[in-house]
Amino acid sequence: MFLLFQEAITEATATDVAVPTEETFSIIQLIFDGGISSVIIIGILFVMLGVALFIYFERTFAIKAASKIDGNFMNQIKDHISNGKLDAALILCGSIDSPVARLIEKGVSRIGKPLEDINKAIENAGTLEVYKMEKNVSVLATIAGAGPMIGFLGTVIGMIIAFQEMANNSGQAEMGQLAGGIYTAMTTTVAGLIVGIVAYIGYNHLVVRTDKVVHQMEANAVEFLDLLNEPV
After folding, report:
1. Quick one: which of 128, 105, 120, 116 has its CA closest to 220?
2. What pLDDT is attached to residue 230?
3. pTM of the complete model beyond 0.70
4. Residue 10 lies in a domain
5. Which residue ranges does the record assign to the MotA/TolQ/ExbB proton channel domain (predicted)?
6. What is the DSSP-derived secondary structure letter of residue 98?
């Protein structure tokens, strides 16, 4: 009898205790809860993020390849020029796919002309090489600035939607009715800031790496010009 009474108490307790249900948080559901305006704006930001990442990685690999140069390259150039083997120096420069090699090739091809002309030719070649390395980097800077602005645009649109719901309900709108506008305001702001931060960091990293290659080009150009100034 006692056992039956104890089992009844156990079953009643198990029935009365409510098992809490765990609510799952879905980013996709959060985006779609904001309505069509949220979907459009976040879609634009998603495309901008993809473009920013593509430009960053493409330029990173390109700049990394441009910075590679044999440490013995300038010594070989010096030997060829000292021995009057300009053709060999040109062949050596042409065999290396590097901004430094192309600058030196331009200088070697101008040997025999006034030093100012050689210097000017190297500077012009250097300007072209820097332009190649900075290809599409300005797009990354634009995305860094435009991303948060587009996100804030979504914030404004979301607040307009929320206030419109309040106006349509004489200021007595429930939170459920305002949820769409609030979702739009919050999700687009976060998405815009993420895009802006990623693009900004990527842009500055590319600028730093480009500057290192430019300094490498300048150092080798000065070394080449000093070689031409050495007494025969």
Report:
1. 105
2. 64
3. yes
4. no
5. 97-218
6. S
